[in-house]
Amino acid sequence: MAIAVKQRLLSLDFFRGLTVAAMILVNNPGDWNYVYAPLEHSKWNGCTPTDLIFPFFLFIVGVSIAYALGSRKDDPTQHGQMIRQALRRGATIVVLGWLLHLIPRFDFSHWRFPGVLPRIGVVFSICAILFIKTSRRTQLWTGIALLLGYWILMTLVPVPGIGAPNLEPETNLGAWLDRLVFTPAHLWAGSKTWDPEGLLSTLPAIGTGIFGMLVGSWLRRKDREDAVKVSWLFVYGFIMVILALIWDPFFPINKSLWTSSFVLYTGGLATMALSASYWLIDVQQHQRYLVPFVAFGRNAITAFVLSGLIPKILGYIPAGNTNAREWLYQTVFANNMMPYHASLGSAILLVLVIWVPIGIMYRKHIIIKV
Fold first, then answer.
1. Alpha carbon distance 309, 246 (integer Å)
2. Residue 242 and residue 157 in contact, taking contact as beta carbons nearer than 8 Å
3. Do 283 and 343 touch, CB atoms closer than 8 A?
């Protein structure tokens, strides 16, 4: 999330920008029938490179909170204002997500309440309040409680109207709760019976944000040398990945359910990736060729919103017997490339198109805050 920080890490901007660029890439293939396997989500259990993108972003949200609010947290007189700002920003992100779904038809009968931006907004708000009002120890135990509590709920609590607890797509406890609260018309159109950003799985998603906050708090400490901080972060991340793999047979790594093992697995990998970026970019000063990703990182939410708006706008512009988006894809890519290459090429083009305004904003030092 692009939020102003007093102690800004170039590596954090780079990591955030790389993540949001990858998010745009995998969300916008030219043809969903032709997508390379690494650019697809896992069918259910398991984890592909694409499955790492969203948890990495929520992890970065947590790290950003630690850097943005760390110095102000020490002054209790600012807590009220900080909490109000966090709630306002979180609500704005949620509303942006809803508007992005509704535009251009504003069909409220199929308004999807959950979603990527709503989850980001909720996780940001809750994690920010936790960071402001609690100690690192309390944050750690809160994260552990969320992961263990979610495991117990999903594997031990019977599902009303279905029976025994299970982890199947349509019959697990989270899917039942989503249908109960939102009704099928307001869930993910890909299933209408469950939502990958549903209510219950928001609990472990908050755990992902807390994971990032703890890493951010450790990284910004002044009483440890950089080499020591990075070494311990690598060890910490590696241990989390091992714990996730141990947990996997009992509570499978699953992005759609956002299982507790998925939180540990992706959080561990994100920790190692960020610590490597920090060492290479901020400590060793290897900073060439970073501008495109740093630009995305400075205005990540803006870039994501553009990635939703541009294809929709093109889809409603007539072009012969079709629309501008389809005409462009067929004319430039499908008619000149193999299907998988064409689909990927179209996604890459959208990333480059979005980089133009994002790059201009970066050079003019414009950051759109939400």
1. 41
2. no
3. no
Cα–Cα distance measured from residue 211 to residue 199, given in angstroms and rounded to the nearest whole number: 20
**Residue 203: its pLDDT value, please?**
97
Q: What is the pLDDT of residues 203-216, one digit of tens each?
A: 999 999 999 999 99
d(CA 105, CA 265): 39
SS3 107: coil
| 293, two tokens | 């990703």
- Would you say how long the chain is, in residues? 370
> What is the rounded distance in angstroms from the CA atom of residue 369 to the CA atom of residue 152?
38
| Residue spans per domain, the chain | 1-40+288-370, 44-285
Helix H or strand E segment including 138: helix 136-156
Q: Is 22 helix (H, G, I), strand (E, B) or coil?
A: helix
What are the DSSP calls for 39-81, one per residue?
GS--SSSB--GGGGHHHHHHHHHHHHHHHHHTTGGG-GGGHHH
Q: Quickly count: other Cβ atoms within 10 Å of residue 23's Cβ.
A: 22
Based on the number of CB atoms within 10 Å of its own CB, is 102 exposed (0-12), middle (13-18) or buried (19 or more)?
middle
Distances (CA, A) of 240 to 30, 266, 278, 335: 36, 9, 19, 46
pLDDT confidence tier of residue 189, bands split at 50, 70 and 90 = confident
For 78-114, how does the pLDDT look when each residue is reduced to its tens digit (9 = 90+)? 999 999 999 999 999 999 999 998 887 887 887 888 8
